[in-house]
Specification:
The chain is α/β, with parallel strands linked by helices and about 1450 residues long. Strand 9 and strand 10 form a beta hairpin. It comes from Pinctada imbricata (Atlantic pearl-oyster).
Length: about 1450
């Protein structure tokens, strides 16, 4: 036996035949039968032994090598002894025979020792593969040749499973020994790939592991098996783990995985944990690699210039180099101001073809783990000396600056996409002769997916490398100068004549000043303004102009985005969400625009005059969208036809709309602004340099009108520079390389500053970034020099893991689920506008003045004029600036103050706030409540007479922002969310189970029936009445009793008047009509939006039904029909049975709402069941969340009703959502307390007559009420409680809504104290805080009044006082909510603003500056650059930059 594994491996490693013998048996046999070389014999060996051994070898050679048999060494000894003389048999041992066989055969045989006492060694040919060895061993029990494992005749036992595996391990260990990992160098990233692993992992080891993992591989071991990529990946990973542990070293996979984990998570514990289990290299090895890699990179520094790994010498435009630089701040806000890190990060991008992918080199492995910082290394991260210019240089002047900067902007760029999407919804009103495509669902992807689908792939991509960080304050001129100089030197070293560098606006301004002061040094240095930051600023401009006009409410009230998210997006933050939200709003509004356009064309007779080719080509585009080549051809043809035939009509319609409605013009301007946004994105995605410049030009007027003065000043400079770049650079940009593509593909270019954010900045701030090492110079240098190298390895490992291979052919937005999701959101926006807002493009009866499409608030003349002419104002300001400061022969000061535009938006119509200054002057103006709140909090820190507690005890301004919009209208949430949550607790049904019609009662919301009827089949009100009776007669098939309940619209001082008037204004329903049988039906939507029209229609229907009953006997014998509230006396209820009509005095009711009268009728029907001694069924047909809430609340009172069903839903756009909700099941699913408190909870958290709390949706309300119903049981009698008790009970609910985890439970007894806690510990915005006690009390009063109405539905004659006693007051258009009582914080706060009124500019010593506050917009400085308060300008700069991040 071998004394050690090493001895065995040494003897087995002399021949590699077993690895390479992969052909056929004849070749193997020929090789094995060749005569081995003679070995010198011991002198003591006799001739008898020689003769016997020769005969023995002759006898076993064929079995051993040809037949590949396995022998026990003891059996071979017995065979050998049979050839010896009798006197020599006992003297020869197995050890002698073993040595003799090893000398004779050498490495052509394997002698495998077996563990266990008395176990004989195995002898077999080394050519036997692992599979053959296992197969042979499996048949050892049946072998009998030479008594081979003959169990019947041999006393030695058969090898067990352990012995067999030990034999297999011997073979595998031999092959693993022959695989060596070089220790003198680290593997390259290419060597970490899966394909390379297939080459160096021993095939036998791979096969063995695969047999263990895959049943198919195991069962087909005798043929070559090709498993899935996933199985192969796992097999090779396990094989490399075995291989690495066997050799006591690390494989490429082990090192790659360790570096990937370190790169992505920066966790030593994670790496060491994986290493301890044998899955990756050690953390020590990671540090050694980083040090070796950094030393490798240091060798590239020549004369202070560093060319990072991956950046190749330039040979033309295909290898253009450009750089992005941005500030990186780590721990920027520490308590003591220490340990902060503010430096300039740089990322270099070089375009490459997909066939020229750089791989990390094989780096020499060093012994050190720490970088030795030499003087050369220190220089490349240090800031160079720079003498700041004594005066700021002016930019170059151009002879035709105005002409270059201002050029026409293309319109309707995205119309074809919207039109194709409309076709899938069957919403494009094409001529009747045109057969529209029949589609069950949307087939055209959303914007990005649409453009990617038919754009052509680009094989080029950009390599990213990280030059060293410049360790100095980024905004210092010396830092920017160093960055520019390093970039220029790097490009020169790479052989590129021009250097190209991108900064955000703040750094761009500094860089330009440096360039203008050093043209001899930076004459060939091209500076680019970061497009990502510029576009973020442009989004904030859109938000400023349209947010308060209804855009914000559209995105929130439709349920598309959360309130806080919308607020952030329209400030230019949350870039991706902001772009998507504006694109969604654009498609919804453009769809409405196009639908109105087609209606207008149809009315004007234009559609029939268009050639059929237009429609045929459009339909062909829709049909062949997925056929890339065909679609490009057809869409090109349609674009031409579109420009010739459709665009002129669109311009005519646009002019007509603008002339008819200021609201039309306002939202048409919005569509054009979003088209500029999408153009800029398309320019980067496609790499269209000309479109990039066009879109940048188009943004300039918006920067001026929105008072974004920094971008207003510097964007014209950027545009002029880019229009006059050298031809060599322009030629490269024209090919699209100005946009950064991090991978080859289509429609995937991004801005250089965004690429910088996504690479070096994200890496710096991520888990594997520089947090924690910013004070360690050597660690920081090592990170900087190796981050992109490790990033390349990490990317390779992600590819190996199958996580980095995106399907370039299919974008996420092109997948069916995404298409359905996006289309649903757009459809919801369209429906929300049509049903709940003013249609801005409706030409039938458009609002002539400018109105907020959400609230119906009419803009004042000055606001309307300012908004409608905002683009002209911005253009005028921009032209004046360009002409005076950038045009030739003009002497305007480029750095002079830019006049503010004086733009007035809908926010200017908000209620004004009185503010006191330290001089005693009181100023009344519109100021952002959040601004007052923040300034007031600042005052509490520096003044003893103002405390946070006192500040938060009152409303900050005239509007309690948590309950009301800034214009004083109530905040709303989505009531239907509560209905959906309630419905989820039971199983709805599309059909009712059978029930005795005699014991079934159907109660209908009559106004809901009216609104669901198809008005197109009725030309007059008489026709409408007859159609109503037809629908009524259909009800008697399932019931013997039908009850129709109408609302009342004649109640004075109605709490619903404000909501109804708002809806009327939204629909333009101001006109009153006379309703009689012969009158033609006017515009139905506008007719129904007027309450007086509704009341007239109700009275008409009541009289019409009574007359028809008498003349036609519409109610058959045995059936009963109740008509509730349909008469001139709306309290009256009439019962029709057979040919008789009875007035039901017991059911006469003063209820205003049909919701509560339905409940009253439900209770009456239940009592009728009791009088008949039956258990009945009631079906209520009403799609109203309020009714569902009341049904659940009241079901416990129904003693004789087995089933209560609520029939809700409608058929909209071909989609039938009608269904029956089993209220009886819902009521049993909830606790009794929950059912009792539900109306109160609903009223307190937002309904038609009460406000919702900002950011608190019905879903969270439902969850809280269900989980905490016991804590809210005091709300069971909310309608009966006195004011103080009602406020106390409601406060529990609201406190839990704002503090669900009860962290501040001690403050739940007083909302003022809870406001203090939330404001000081969570730094919550004012709008996200609960209302103060004074405004909350008024809210509770209004909710109490509504709860009294609901929770006393069983009382026919309600009398709970006047709404004027419950938080309402009389206004010019009906009742208005009382916002709060008492004073507000701004009444007693002084010094919120400075006293510099009347002066040309604020001084640096004004009260604002003394209290570390920036100046406001209330004085001549307007908080702008005229102000000498340094904090004002600092705030302006920071705010603009903050918006971009």
């Amino acid at each position: 036996m071998f004394t050690s594994d090493n001895e065995m491996l040494h003897r087995l490693s002399s021949d590699s035949f077993s690895e390479t013998a992969l052909y056929h048996d004849a070749c193997i046999t020929k090789y094995l039968l060749r005569k081995p070389s003679k070995v010198a014999e011991d002198a003591s060996e006799s001739t008898e032994h020689e003769s016997a051994f020769t005969a023995f070898i002759t006898d076993i050679k064929d079995d051993l090598f040809v037949h590949k048999k396995v022998f026990l060494l003891s059996n071979l000894l017995a065979k050998f002894c049979s050839f010896l003389p009798d006197n020599s048999k006992n003297a020869y041992t197995t050890q002698h025979l073993r040595q003799r066989l090893e000398r004779y055969f050498g490495n052509t045989i394997t002698i495998q020792s077996q563990r266990g006492q008395g176990m004989s060694s195995l002898v077999y040919s080394s050519s036997v593969s692992l599979s053959e060895a296992i197969d042979t061993v499996n048949h050892l029990r049946t072998e009998s040749y030479f008594h081979l494992f003959d169990l019947a005749n041999n006393s030695e036992s058969c090898p067990n499973e352990r012995q067999i595996l030990h034999a297999a391990a011997s073979i595998l260990r031999k092959h693993m020994r022959e695989t060596n990992f070089p220790n003198e160098r680290y593997p390259s990233s290419a060597e970490m790939s899966l394909d390379y692993s297939l080459e160096y992992v021993p095939p036998l080891l791979k096969d063995f592991v695969m047999w263990l993992l895959d049943l198919d591989a195991y069962e087909t071991y005798d043929v070559e098996f090709s498993g899935s990529r996933e199985k192969t990946r796992k097999c090779l990973a396990l094989a490399e783990c075995i291989l690495s542990i066997n050799q006591g070293s690390f494989s490429p996979f082990h090192l790659g995985l360790a570096l990937q984990m370190h790169h992505m998570f920066g966790s030593r514990l994670l790496v060491e944990t994986l290493h301890s289990h044998g899955f990756c290299a050690s953390y020590t090895e990671v540090r050694r690699f980083l040090t070796s890699a950094s030393e490798h990179e240091v060798t590239k520094i020549k004369d202070g210039t560093y060319l990072p790994y991956g950046i190749a010498p330039c040979s033309g435009q295909s290898t253009l180099i450009q750089e992005g630089a941005d500030n990186v701040d780590i721990n920027a806000e520490t308590v003591d101001g220490k340990d902060t890190f503010h430096s300039m990060a740089r990322a270099v991008f070089q375009v490459r073809s997909s066939s020229d992918v750089p791989r990390t080199p094989g780096i020499k492995r060093l012994g050190e783990r720490t970088v030795q910082v030499s003087e050369t290394v220190s220089e490349i991260i240090s800031c160079l000396p720079f003498n700041k210019p004594k005066e700021r240089k002016e930019p170059a002047r151009f002879s035709n600056a105005t002409i270059q900067v201002f050029s026409p902007v293309s319109k309707n760029a995205e119309v074809i996409w919207v039109l194709l999407r409309l076709l899938s919804r069957n919403k494009a009103h094409l001529p009747s002769l045109v057969s529209q495509p029949i589609t069950e669902h949307q087939t055209i992807p959303f914007w990005t997916g649409y453009h990617k689908e038919w754009s052509f792939a680009n094989s080029d991509f950009h390599v990213v490398a990280y030059p060293p960080i410049v360790d100095s304050k980024p905004t210092d001129m010396a830092t920017v100068y160093t960055t520019m100089k390093r970039c220029r030197e790097m490009c020169q070293t790479a052989g590129q004549h021009y250097s190209i560098q991108t900064f955000d606006q703040q750094l761009y301004a500094i860089a330009q000043q440096i360039k203008w002061s050093n043209m001899s040094e930076f004459g060939n240095h091209i500076l680019r303004l970061g497009g990502f930051h510029a576009l973020s600023c442009f989004i904030s401009c859109i938000g400023k102009l349209w947010s308060d006009g209804g855009l914000s409410d559209l995105l929130i009230d439709s349920g598309t985005y959360a309130p806080c998210t919308v607020e952030q997006m329209l400030l230019g933050k949350q870039f991706n969400r902001a772009v998507r939200s504006l694109t969604l709003a654009y498609e919804a509004l453009k769809s409405l625009w196009l639908m109105a356009f087609f209606d207008w064309c149809d009315t004007e007779g234009h559609l029939s005059n268009l050639p059929e080719e237009v429609w045929e080509t459009l339909l062909s585009c829709h049909l062949h969208f997925r056929d890339n080549d065909h679609f490009v051809e057809v869409s090109s043809s349609f674009s031409s036809l579109f420009e010739i035939h459709i665009v002129p009509l669109m311009e005519e319609y646009r002019k007509a709309g603008i002339a008819a409605s200021a609201t039309f013009q306002y939202w048409d301007m919005f569509l054009q602004a979003v088209e500029i946004l999408l153009q800029n994105i398309r320019a980067e995605r496609y790499g269209d340099w000309n479109l990039h410049l066009i879109s940048m030009k188009a943004m300039i007027p918006y920067f001026f009108v929105a008072n974004r003065n920094n971008y207003a000043r510097w964007t014209p400079v950027y545009v002029l520079d880019m229009l006059n770049i050298p031809m060599e650079v322009k030629s490269s940009f024209d090919t699209g390389v100005f946009a950064i593509r991090q991978k080859a593909g289509s429609f995937n270019g991004i801005w250089a500053d965004m690429a910088t954010e996504k690479t070096i900045i994200r890496d710096s701030k991520g888990h594997g970034g520089i947090k924690g090492i910013t004070t360690q110079k050597t660690a920081l240098i090592r990170w900087n020099l190796t981050r992109h190298i490790v990033g390349q390895i990490s990317a390779e490992m992600r590819l190996r893991a199958g996580l980095g291979r995106d399907d370039e052919d299919v974008h996420d937005e092109s997948k069916p689920t995404a298409i359905a999701r996006d289309d649903k959101q757009v459809s919801n926006l369209i429906s929300h506008i049509e049903e709940n807002m003013i249609h801005p493009f409706d030409m039938t009866e458009p609002p002539k003045s400018l109105v907020n499409i959400s609230t119906g608030l009419c803009a004042t003349p000055d606001v309307e004029n300012s908004l409608l002419h905002s683009l002209e104002t911005g253009t005028s300001l921009a032209r004046k600036f360009v002409e005076s400061t950038l045009s030739e022969n003009m002497s305007g000061n480029f750095y002079g103050a830019i006049p503010r535009s004086g733009i007035k938006t809908f926010s200017k119509m908000h209620k004004k706030t009185k503010l006191k200054c330290n001089s005693g002057v009181t100023v009344k103006s519109v100021v952002n409540p959040e601004l007052i709140f923040r300034r007031a909090l600042t005052l509490t820190k520096c003044r003893d007479d103002v405390t946070v507690e006192k500040l938060m005890s009152f409303p900050i301004g005239p509007i309690p922002t948590s309950l009301f919009h800034d214009d004083g209208t109530m905040r709303k949430n989505v009531k239907s969310d509560l209905a959906r949550e309630l419905e989820n607790e039971a199983t709805s049904s599309f059909f009712l189970p059978f029930f005795d019609p005699e014991s079934t009662v159907v109660i209908r919301d009559a106004m809901g029936v009216i609104q669901s009827m198809d008005i197109k089949v009725s030309s007059s009100f008489g026709d409408f009445g007859r159609n109503y009776l037809k629908l009524l007669s259909l009800q008697f098939g399932m019931t013997a009793t039908v009850i129709d309940v109408f609302d009342r619209y004649d109640v004075e001082d109605s709490t619903k008047s404000a909501e109804r008037q708002r809806r009327a204004f939204l629909s333009g329903g101001h006109k009153e009509y006379k309703v009689n049988e012969g009158s033609l039906i006017p515009d139905w939507k506008k007719f129904l939006s007027n309450g007086k029209n509704k009341q007239s229609l109700i009275v008409f229907l009541g009289d019409f039904i009574l007359d028809s009953f008498v003349s036609q006997q519409i109610v058959q014998s045995g059936n009963t029909f109740y008509l509730v509230g349909a008469f001139r006396n709306p309290e009256c209820v009439k019962k029709m049975v057979g040919s008789e009509v009875f007035e039901c005095h017991s059911l006469s009711s003063t209820h205003e709402e049909a919701d509560t009268r339905i409940i009253l009728q439900t209770l009456h029907a239940d009592s009728e069941f009791g009088s008949r001694n039956v258990k009945g069924r009631i079906v209520i047909r009403c799609s109203d969340t309020d009714v569902l809430v009341l049904c659940i609340h009241y079901f416990g009172r129904l003693k004789h009703t087995n089933e209560l069903w609520l029939y809700i839903g409608s058929v909209v756009k071909g989609r039938d959502s009608r269904r029956y909700i089993p209220v009886h099941e819902l009521s049993r699913a909830f606790s009794d307390i929950f059912c009792c408190i539900l109306p109160a909870v609903h009223a307190l958290t937002g309904c038609d007559t009460t406000s919702a709390f900002y950011g608190v949706g019905k879903k969270s309300v439902y969850k809280l009420a269900k989980e905490s119903s016991k804590n809210l049981e005091s709300l069971q009698n909310f309608a009966e409680l006195e004011t103080d008790r009602a406020v106390e009970s409601a406060r529990k609910l609201v406190s839990l809504l704002y503090d669900p985890k009860e962290k501040f439970k001690i403050c739940h007894f007083n909302l003022n104290k809870l406001r203090v806690k939330l404001a000081t510990t969570k730094d919550s915005a004012l709008v996200r805080l609960p209302p103060c006690e004074s405004s909350f009390k008024q809210h509770v009063l209004r909710a109490s009044f509504q709860a009294k109405t609901w929770m006393k539905s069983h009382v026919a004659k309600q009398s709970h006082g006047s709404p004027l006693e419950y938080g309402w007051k009389k206004g010019h258009a009906g009742l208005e909510p009382v916002l709060f009582t008492g004073m507000m914080s701004s009444d007693f706060l002084e010094d919120l603003i400075c006293s510099c009124k009347g002066k040309s500019v604020c001084t640096n010593a004004c009260i604002c500056s003394e209290q570390y506050l920036a100046c406001t917009e209330l004085y001549p400085c307007q908080g702008g650059q005229l102000c000498q308060n340094t904090l004002t300008n600092q705030q302006n700069d920071d705010y603009e930059i903050e918006d971009m991040e």
